[in-house]
């Protein structure tokens, strides 16, 4: 099928040279970008099966989200979790997440991916690491089904926790799994779903949760399995000072050094957060091309700190953007997250500030690099057709037309994407997802979330949910 996108106001290609074209057109053939025309108002004479009139719109590559916890859309801004830092926040939420089941995972995945899609995101990862022992183990399968139904490109990570409270870890014992179970399910998912080919819609990643919820042995064995099967590795690293203290106390190493000693530095690895890095840490990440996911809203929400993005970029380390889980953001708007990234950098010294074009590059090309997807992230002939049209005629962009790319970040109050194509298929049209009833889904999501909280309250009490009672360790 051929699709022609005609006459956008501007094409922000995000190619190596950062070309921007006024007017022109983009031809899509069989899911790929077949040609980028930059001849202004002179339109190519081509017959296409579908023509999209992009007059007064900005055309960008699809945005890429590299870190998330979709299930947390069921526990957004819970009263007891609103004002806590990471470790206390986790201890509170673990008790509620013990109620997760397959329905919770399917519904929350659809919610998060739908919100992401409407914000211009065409490829997302998710880090699912909570596998309650009483619940069916095939939660990632439910996620993949939800992503396929929405038509979003998806790189789920098979997360894991193996270090329960009784062994010195943070999570309750019934939320952790033994290493053999984790590795067997990881292998099953890779064999069943992982598509290593260019343009893949589904790829599996392996992702033990963090140094304080996984044993060193599980980290090491997971890395071996990833290298054997050719999949990427992901985990949380250097998010808070509490984590740094835990790593120094337990292993005698700072978090990045610990990961290096476990075989976890390399161009097939990316870390979430990396807020607290030394100059040496930054050097090691750059030398080994180890990537990172910047999660500015979550870092602010939990008071974790500001990641040294300027230093990582200048050193040449791969940097990407992510919304993080919805209990610490608490939204899934990736363009709004790009705005947060821009603004948060301005709280640092002026030499560390980031520009709009630079932030959009991180949100597109940076994500593609970190996720191992050279065929994504820019508008160039031969690349996959993951594209977004942004309507420049809206009220919130009035007066911001001198630089449409900057307008999205400086002036935009989190606008919806007008049109989104994933793999050459139109998934969002005029600001709505095709074949998806938003309000009906939201109503169902609210019922599932409420039922989950009711189950948790029956075990823990209403005071616990409201945060009026300190968490009991069980
Ligand atoms: Zn996270």
Give your account of this protein's structure.
- There is one protein chain.
- Strands 8-9-10-11-12-13-14-15 form an eight-stranded parallel β-sheet.
- It has two domains: about 1-60 and about 380-435, Urease, subunit C, domain 1 (Roll); about 65-370, Metal-dependent hydrolases (TIM Barrel), CATH 3.20.20.140.
- A hairpin with a 2-residue loop joins strand 18 (about 425-430) and strand 19 (about 430-435).
- The chain has helices at about 85-95, 100-120, 140-150, 180-195, 215-230, 240-250, 255-260, 280-290, 295-300, 310-315, 335-345, 355-370, 405-410, 440-460, 460-465, and strands at about 1-5, 10, 20, 25-30, 30-35, 50-55, 55-60, 65, 120-130, 155-160, 205-210, 230-235, 270-275, 290-295, 320, 385-390, 420, 425-430, 430-435.
- Helix 11 packs across helix 12.
- With about 475 residues, it is α/β, with parallel strands linked by helices.
- It is about 35% helix and about 20% strand.
- It has 15 helices and 19 strands.
- The chain is globular.
- It starts with a strand and ends in an 8-residue tail after the last helix.
- Zinc ion binds near residues 236, 324 and 325.
């Amino acid at each position: 099928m051929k699709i022609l996108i005609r006459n956008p106001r501007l094409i922000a290609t995000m190619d190596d040279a950062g070309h921007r074209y006024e007017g022109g057109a983009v031809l899509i053939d069989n899911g790929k970008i077949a040609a980028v025309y930059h001849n202004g108002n002179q339109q190519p004479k081509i017959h296409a099966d579908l023509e999209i009139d992009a007059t007064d719109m900005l055309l960008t590559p699809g945005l890429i989200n590299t870190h998330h916890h979709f299930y947390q859309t069921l526990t957004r801004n819970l009263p007891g979790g609103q004002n806590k830092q990471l470790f206390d926040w986790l201890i509170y939420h673990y008790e509620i997440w013990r109620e997760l089941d397959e329905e919770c995972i399917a519904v929350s995945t659809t919610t998060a991916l739908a919100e992401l899609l409407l914000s211009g995101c065409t490829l997302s990862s998710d880090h699912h690491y909570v596998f309650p022992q009483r619940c069916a183990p095939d939660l990632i399968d439910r996620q993949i089904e939800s992503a396929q139904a929405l038509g979003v490109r998806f790189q789920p990570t098979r997360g894991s926790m193996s270090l329960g409270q009784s062994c010195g870890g943070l999570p309750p014992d019934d939320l952790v799994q033994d290493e053999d179970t984790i590795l067997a399910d990881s292998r099953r998912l890779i064999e069943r779903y992982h598509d290593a080919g260019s343009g893949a819609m589904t790829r599996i990643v392996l992702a033990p949760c963090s140094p304080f919820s996984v044993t060193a042995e599980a980290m090491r064995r997971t890395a071996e399995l990833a290298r054997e099967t050719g999949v990427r590795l992901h985990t949380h690293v250097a998010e808070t000072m509490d984590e740094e203290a835990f790593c120094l106390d337990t292993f005698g190493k700072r978090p990045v050094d610990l990961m290096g000693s476990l075989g976890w530095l390399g161009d097939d690895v990316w870390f979430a957060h990396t807020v607290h890095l030394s100059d040496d840490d930054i050097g090691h990440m750059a030398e080994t091309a180890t990537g990172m996911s910047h999660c500015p809203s979550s870092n602010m929400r939990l008071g974790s700190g500001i990641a040294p993005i300027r230093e990582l970029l200048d050193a040449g380390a791969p940097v990407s953007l992510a919304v993080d889980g919805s209990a610490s953001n608490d939204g899934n708007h990736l363009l709004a997250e790009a705005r947060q990234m821009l603004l948060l950098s301005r709280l640092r010294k002026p030499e560390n500030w980031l520009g709009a074009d630079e932030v959009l590059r991180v949100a597109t090309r940076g994500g593609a690099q970190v996720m191992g997807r050279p065929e994504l992230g820019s508008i160039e002939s031969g690349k996959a057709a993951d594209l977004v049209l942004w309507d420049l005629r809206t009220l919130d962009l009035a007066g911001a037309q001198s630089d449409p790319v900057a307008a999205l970040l400086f002036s935009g109050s989190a606008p919806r994407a007008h049109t989104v194509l994933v793999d050459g298929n139109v998934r969002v049209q005029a600001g709505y997802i095709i074949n998806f009833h938003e309000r009906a889904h939201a109503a169902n999501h609210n019922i599932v979330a409420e039922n989950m909280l009711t189950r948790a309250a029956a075990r823990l009490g209403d005071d616990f949910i409201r945060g009026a009672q300190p968490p009991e360790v069980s």
